[in-house]
Design a protein that fits this description.
With about 100 residues, this protein is mostly helical. The protein contains five helices and two strands, in the order ααββααα. It binds zinc ion.
């Protein structure tokens, strides 16, 4: 699903830590929890227990509600919905959200 994203060229003025967070988020759909089948961990922002923290971060976390203010489509698979959300949110808003609430590692 990552291949559905548009090419990503952050502005050179963007904070390198923010760029790192953006890349991590975009590539984060196969997090360590899913790859190793370990128990779910709580979200570091809202303490919700989620199997997929990247999907929680994009689709459900109260701390990232701004990401979901822009028009997007709901698909049967959450990973596709998350891609839609990330495709609709303006880059500057995305950068502000990940700077304030770092995505799961
Ligand atoms: Zn959360």
């Amino acid at each position: 699903m990552v291949t559905r994203f548009e090419p990503f060229f952050p502005p050179s003025t963007m904070d390198p830590r923010t760029i790192t967070s953006l890349h991590r988020l975009r590539l984060g759909y196969l997090g360590t929890t899913q790859m190793t089948n370990e128990a779910a961990n709580p979200c570091e922002h809202c303490l919700e227990m989620e199997e997929s923290q990247p999907l929680h971060y994009v689709l459900h976390c109260p701390s990232t509600a701004r990401l979901r203010l822009y028009r997007h489509t709901t698909y049967p698979r959450e990973v596709e919905t998350a891609a839609s959300v990330l495709g609709a949110v303006p880059l500057n808003v995305l950068a502000e959200v990940v700077a304030s609430y770092p995505p799961p590692r």
